[in-house]
Design a protein that fits this description.
InterPro entries: DNA_methylase_N6_adenine_CS, DUF1156, SAM-dependent_MTases_sf. The protein has 34 helices and 27 strands.
Length: about 900
C-alpha cells in the first residue's frame, strides 16, 4: 500500500521549478520552428493548429521523467544543446528509456504531439481524431513512414505518372501560361457595362528588408476604353530598368507612377463602377453586388444541369473576369495583359466541363451558416468554388488516383495517400477564393484566413507550373516531407484511430495523455476541412457525404449557426462546455491513477478558463499541479511601438487525479496567497524573477494548484459553470494579483494594498516596455489585474491610471520615447494636475503621488524631503507611493523612463525611501 502511494504522489519533471526555468529556451526554439526552421512535412498540407515539435517533445518527455532528472541530461535528451540546428532536425537521445510507457493524444489533429512521442521511443503511441480528414493525415505523418525509402521512391514514380496523365489537358486549357490573376466583374446597374471589382491593384511588392529597397514592384492599372476597362501591367523594375527600387516611386523622368485605389470594400457594402463612377446600391444581404454573385452561382448550377446556355451564363449580372496572366517561376514572374484568346480559352472550358462525370466533382453542400462566409454569396456547393478548367483538371487527377486504389493493398493506400495530399495542397491554392499576397508568396491560399472567406483578387495556376501551390510543386513538398518523416521511425507501436472521444475504448489505461483540446473560438474544423474531405473521398472511400452534416453534433466547438441546422443548442457555449466536460471525464477514465494529463490551451480569457476548469476540475475532479506559459506565436512578441498586449497566452496545464476533500473558500484563498507570495518573494530576493506576461500565467497556475486540490470549496456561490465563473473572477484572479503584489512587497520590504497601485505596478512590470509611446493592454485582459475582483475600466480611468483608446487601454505613464531628463519631466507634467504642480494637492491614489514625487526627484531633488513632509499632512498615500518607487528601483526594466526617478526616490541617495518610509 505504501509503495503504491509513493507511485501516485511522485512528481514529474514537468511539475518542477527546474523545468519552468528552461521554458524560455523551449520557446526560442519553438519560435524558430514557426519561422525559417519549419519542419519540412508542414509544407505537405496546411492544417490550422500545429504545435511546434520541440514543445511537443519537451513537454512529453518532461511528463514521463521524474522531477529529479538533471536538467543537463534532459536538455541533451531532447536536443536543446545544439544551437546550430533546430532540435526537430535531431533525433532525441533516450536509449529506450520510455519503452514501457503508453501515451495518448485524443485530439491529435496533424500529429505534432504523437510524432514526438514516437521519436522519443515511447512504447505505445495512440493518436485519435474525430475527423476522417485528420485521420488520413495522421496515417501519413505517423504510420505510413514505416515503409521507408521504397515509399519515397514510389511516391516519386507515381507522382510523375500523375503529372504526365494531365499534360495534354493542361496544354489545351492553359497553353504556355503559368497562371492568371482574376476577380469578379459586375454589370453596373447605372450604365449597364461590366466593371471589374478589385480591392487592391498590387501584384508584387517584395521588400528586400533592412531599408534596402524593393526587389520587385508590379501593379495593375485600369484604363477606360469606351465602355470597357483595359487592365495594364506596370512593372517598375522594367520601366525604370532597375533590379532594386529604393522606394515606392511616384514620379521618374516626368512619368507619374501611382497605384490606383481599389473600387470595392465588401465589409462596407461599397463598390464603384470604373466606367461611370457610380456607386452600386444596397447594403448587407441586399447589396447589389452580393445579389449579383448569388445569381452567378445559381446560373452556374443551372448551366451544368443543362437548363441554360453558356451565353446565358455569361450574361449573369456577375461573372469571373481574367485581369492579367503571368509566366515564369516562383517570385520571378512576368505579367502580361489578357488577350481575346485567353478569354476564349477560359470560357470554352465551361462547355468542356459538361463532358465530365458529375461524380468526379464535388456537388456536396457547404455548411449553410456563418462559419462558411462564402455561402452568403451563393457558393452553396463545393464545385462553385472552382472555375471550369480547374474542375476538368481535378477530375482527371481523380481518374488517375482511382486507378491506383486497391482496397486490399495497404502499401498502395500509403502511396495513394501522399499523392492525394499533394492534390489537396494544389486545390487550396487554386480556386476562386485564393488571393494575392504581393509582399510574400504572391498566392495566398484559400484557407489563409482560417475560414472560407470571399476574396476579390483570386489567382489561378497551371497545375504543372513551377510556382508555389502548383500540383508539381506540391508533389515536391510531399516528397521532401516524407523524406523527413521516415527519419522519425522508431520502435514505438503506433495506433491511429478515427473515433469520437466519447466512443473511444482502450483495453488498458495510459501513463500520460498529452493533447491540444478544443477551445471555444477555435477553427470550426468539420466545416472548413470539408474542402479537403469532399475531394479526398473521391480518391479514398470515406463514410460520410460531408463531415459537417455527420459530425457537427459530436464536435466540441462554438459556432452559433450550427443550432439553426442541428438544434439542441448545438454549437453554443453551453453545448461546448458540456461536451468538453464529458471529454475530460473520459480522459480521467483512460488515465492511470498516477498518470498525468497535459493540455495545451491556446488562450486564457475568462470564458476559456471557465470552460476548462468546469471540465477538468468541477466535472472530472482533476487537480492542476503546474501551468507553463508558452509564447511561440509572433503576436506575443513585442517588436513594434505602441503594441497592444493581451494576456490571452498559450499555456500548458498539468493535471492529476484527483481533487479531494473540502475547505472553506476564504481559507483556501489565504492558503494560496500565502504559499504563492512566498514563492514570488523568494524569487525576487534571489534575483531569479524574470517579470513578463508569462509571470502572470505561471503564478496563476500556482494559485490554481491550491484551489483545485480540493474537490469542494465551501462558500463558493452558484452552481456548475456559474460557480466556476465566480471562482475565477472573484477569487482566482484577485488571489493571483495579490500573490504577485505581496511577493514583490515582501521581497523588497514594503507594503502595497491599494488596488490602483497594484494595477499600475502589474502593468508596468508584466507588459514589456515599448520603444515609444506607452504600454497598452486589450480591454478583455483588464479583469486579470484586478486586486478586488470588481475593478473596472471606468474606475481606472476616473482615477487617472489608464486612458481610453479605440481598441485598447493605455497606461497613464510617461512616454517611453522620452530620453533626456527634461523630456521625462515634461511627460510627468502631462500626467499631473496643474494645481498639484503649484502645491495644491488633491491626490486620489498612490500612483498620482508617485508621479508627483518622480517629478520632484528629477526637477528639484533637493526639495524631495520637504515635499514628502508636506504630502504627509495632506494625503494618506505617501507610503504606498514610496513603496511603488522601491519596487520599481528593484525590478523595473533598466531602460524604462521611470527607473531613474524611482532610484532617486527609493534609497540610492540618502534622501530616499529608506529615510522617509514610516
Amino acid at each position: 500500500m505504501s509503495i503504491r502511494l509513493l507511485l501516485v504522489t511522485q512528481r514529474k519533471l514537468i511539475e518542477s521549478e527546474n523545468f519552468t526555468e528552461i521554458i524560455p529556451q523551449i520557446d526560442k526554439e519553438a519560435a524558430r520552428e514557426k519561422g525559417p526552421g519549419r519542419p519540412p512535412y508542414w509544407e505537405m498540407i496546411f492544417w490550422w493548429t500545429r504545435k511546434p515539435l520541440i514543445s511537443a517533445r519537451a513537454f512529453t518527455a518532461a511528463a514521463l521523467l521524474p522531477e529529479d532528472v538533471p536538467m543537463t541530461e534532459f536538455k541533451r535528451m531532447v536536443r536543446l544543446t545544439d544551437n546550430t540546428r533546430p532540435p526537430h532536425n535531431l533525433l532525441p537521445i533516450t536509449n529506450g528509456r520510455f519503452k514501457e510507457f503508453t501515451v495518448l493524444d485524443p485530439f491529435a489533429g496533424f500529429g505534432s504531439i504523437p510524432l514526438e512521442a514516437k521519436r522519443l521511443g515511447v512504447g505505445k503511441v495512440i493518436a485519435s481524431d474525430l475527423l476522417p480528414t485528420a485521420y488520413i493525415f495522421l496515417k501519413a505523418v505517423l504510420e505510413y513512414p514505416k515503409y521507408g525509402k521504397k515509399l519515397v521512391e514510389d511516391v516519386k514514380k507515381y507522382g510523375e505518372e500523375m503529372l504526365k496523365s494531365i499534360e495534354e489537358d493542361v496544354k489545351e486549357l492553359y497553353g504556355d501560361t503559368t497562371g492568371y490573376v482574376g476577380t469578379w466583374e459586375v454589370k453596373c446597374p447605372h450604365c449597364g457595362n461590366y466593371t471589374p471589382l478589385v480591392n487592391q491593384w498590387w501584384l508584387l511588392k517584395l521588400d528586400k528588408g533592412g531599408g534596402k529597397g524593393y526587389e520587385r514592384l508590379v501593379y495593375m492599372k485600369p484604363e477606360k476604353q469606351g465602355n470597357s476597362i483595359r487592365i495594364r501591367v506596370v512593372d517598375l523594375n522594367k520601366e525604370l530598368n532597375k533590379k532594386t527600387i529604393k522606394a515606392e516611386v511616384n514620379e521618374s523622368d516626368g512619368t507619374k507612377y501611382e497605384v490606383p485605389e481599389g473600387n470595392i470594400e465588401a465589409k462596407n457594402s461599397y463598390a464603384r463602377c470604373l466606367i461611370c463612377n457610380n456607386v452600386f446600391p444596397g447594403k448587407g444581404d441586399k447589396w447589389y453586388v452580393k445579389e449579383a454573385l448569388r445569381e452567378w452561382n445559381e446560373n452556374y448550377e443551372r448551366f451544368l444541369n443543362g437548363e441554360i446556355t453558356l451565353g446565358e451564363l455569361r450574361s449573369s449580372k456577375a461573372r469571373p473576369k481574367l485581369l492579367v496572366k503571368f509566366k515564369g517561376r516562383s517570385k520571378d514572374l512576368d505579367f502580361e495583359e489578357i488577350t481575346d484568346d485567353d478569354e476564349k480559352m477560359f470560357w470554352d472550358s465551361f462547355e468542356k466541363l459538361k463532358e465530365v462525370d458529375i461524380n468526379k466533382i464535388p456537388i456536396e453542400n457547404l455548411a449553410p451558416y456563418g462559419t462558411i462566409r462564402i455561402s452568403t454569396w451563393g457558393t452553396d456547393k463545393f464545385f462553385k468554388m472552382f472555375n471550369a478548367r480547374q474542375l476538368i483538371i481535378f477530375s482527371k487527377v481523380v481518374d488517375y488516383l482511382n486507378k491506383l486504389y486497391d482496397e486490399n493493398d495497404e502499401y498502395k493506400k500509403a502511396v495513394l495517400t501522399y499523392l492525394a495530399i499533394a492534390f489537396l495542397n494544389h486545390i487550396r491554392h487554386n480556386c476562386f477564393f485564393t488571393s494575392i499576397d504581393p509582399s510574400r508568396k504572391f498566392i495566398a491560399h484559400t484557407l489563409a484566413f482560417r475560414r472560407l472567406g470571399f476574396t476579390w483578387n483570386w489567382v489561378e495556376i497551371n497545375p504543372l507550373a513551377d510556382v508555389i501551390g502548383s500540383l508539381r510543386r506540391s508533389l515536391d513538398h510531399v516528397i521532401e516531407g516524407l523524406e523527413y518523416l521516415i527519419q522519425t521511425n522508431s520502435d514505438s507501436k503506433i495506433e491511429v484511430l478515427n473515433v469520437d472521444i466519447n466512443e473511444l475504448n482502450l483495453p488498458e489505461k495510459v501513463d500520460v495523455i498529452i493533447t491540444d483540446p478544443p477551445f471555444a473560438d477555435d477553427v470550426p474544423y468539420p466545416e472548413v476541412s470539408d474542402l479537403y474531405y469532399v475531394w479526398l473521398k473521391r480518391v479514398i472511400p470515406m463514410p460520410y457525404r460531408t463531415q459537417w452534416e455527420e459530425l457537427i453534433p459530436k464536435d466540441i466547438g462554438v459556432e452559433e449557426g450550427r443550432a439553426k441546422v442541428f438544434g439542441n443548442n448545438t454549437g453554443t457555449y453551453d453545448d461546448f462546455r458540456e461536451k468538453l466536460a464529458k471529454a475530460f471525464g473520459k480522459l480521467s477514465n483512460f488515465l492511470k491513477d498516477d498518470g498525468l494529463l497535459v493540455t495545451f490551451y491556446n488562450h486564457t480569457s475568462t470564458e476559456a478558463w471557465v470552460s476548462l476548469l468546469y471540465a477538468g476540475w468541477y466535472y472530472s475532479k482533476f487537480k492542476i499541479t503546474a501551468v507553463h506559459a508558452v509564447t511561440t506565436e509572433d503576436e506575443t512578441r513585442i517588436t513594434a511601438q505602441n503594441t497592444t498586449i493581451s494576456l490571452d497566452k498559450s499555456m500548458v496545464i498539468v493535471w492529476r487525479k484527483k481533487a479531494e476533500g473540502q475547505k472553506l473558500l476564504q481559507e483556501v484563498r489565504k492558503e494560496a496567497i500565502s504559499t504563492v507570495s512566498d514563492y514570488v518573494s523568494t524569487m525576487v530576493q534571489k534575483g531569479k524573477l524574470k517579470l513578463s506576461t508569462d509571470t502572470y500565467i505561471e503564478v496563476l497556475g500556482k494559485v490554481l494548484s491550491v484551489f483545485t486540490k480540493y474537490e469542494k470549496l465551501a462558500g463558493l456561490k452558484g452552481e456548475r459553470e456559474k460557480a466556476v465563473e465566480e471562482l475565477i473572477t472573484n477569487h482566482v484572479y484577485p488571489a493571483t494579483v495579490q500573490s504577485i503584489i505581496e511577493g514583490l512587497s515582501k521581497g523588497v520590504g514594503v507594503t502595497i494594498s491599494d488596488p490602483y497601485a497594484a494595477y499600475y505596478i502589474l502593468v508596468k512590470l508584466l507588459i514589456p516596455r515599448p520603444e515609444k509611446g506607452v504600454r497598452k493592454i486589450d480591454k478583455t485582459s483588464l479583469t486579470f489585474f484586478s486586486l478586488t475582483g470588481n475593478l473596472d475600466f471606468k474606475d481606472l480611468q476616473d482615477n487617472g491610471i489608464v486612458k481610453a483608446d479605440k481598441d485598447s487601454i493605455s497606461l497613464a505613464e510617461p512616454n517611453q520615447a522620452a530620453k533626456e531628463t527634461l523630456e521625462v519631466i515634461s511627460e510627468l507634467e502631462k500626467l499631473l494636475d496643474k494645481k498639484a504642480l503649484l502645491g495644491d494637492y488633491n491626490f486620489s491614489n498612490p500612483v498620482q503621488v508617485f508621479h508627483y514625487l518622480e517629478y520632484i526627484a528629477l526637477k528639484s531633488k533637493d526639495k524631495l524631503k520637504e515635499e514628502i513632509e508636506k504630502l504627509r499632512e495632506k494625503t494618506r498615500f505617501v507610503d504606498e507611493a514610496l513603496a511603488i518607487a522601491k519596487i520599481f528601483a528593484k525590478v523595473l526594466d533598466e531602460k524604462d523612463v521611470e527607473k531613474e526617478p524611482s532610484k532617486r526616490i527609493s534609497g540610492e541617495e540618502k534622501t530616499g525611501i529608506l529615510r522617509w518610509t514610516k
